[in-house]
Specification:
Elements (H helix, E strand, L loop, with lengths): L8 H9 L3 H10 L10 E6 L2 E7 L4 E6 L6 H15 L4 E6 H6 L1 H18 L1
Parallel strand pairs: 3-4
Antiparallel strand pairs: 1-2, 2-3
Length: 122
């Protein structure tokens, strides 16, 4: 189990109840062990972050990024977050909400490919 801040538990629950359209759409394709029989979690607290999706078996984080992620501050914050998570051995995949909404099959194929690669290297 990855370390997390217990104070984020309620925020994580709130985020699960209020997922974006892109998050909901992607969740329908990765939940219930649909990718190589692996469990994904949504809105999972890790350290002081809440990641959109997390697959512990593949040490994989998936982020669905809206417009706020593409500002100067947003890009810096994401870069710092990704670096911190990588120090735990986690790989972060980022997709724009637009990608998920318009190219869902391509996004799922990329997740499948990365998960397969990660399992082979672990």
């Amino acid at each position: 189990m990855r370390p997390y801040n217990k104070k984020l538990k309620q925020s994580s629950r709130d985020l699960r109840k209020n997922m974006t359209d892109a998050e909901q759409l992607l969740w329908q394709r990765i939940r219930r062990k649909q990718i190589l029989g692996l469990q994904f979690y949504r809105q999972k607290p890790i350290l002081n972050f809440i990641v959109d999706f997390y697959c512990p078996a593949a040490s994989l984080v998936i982020e669905c990024d809206g417009g706020q992620h593409y500002t100067k501050l947003g890009l810096e914050a994401d870069q710092n977050r990704d670096h911190t998570l990588s120090e735990l051995g986690l790989v972060t995949l980022r997709f724009t909400n637009h990608q998920i909404l318009t190219e869902l099959d391509v996004v799922v194929e990329q997740i499948y490919y990365v998960v397969r690669q990660r399992l082979e290297s672990i």
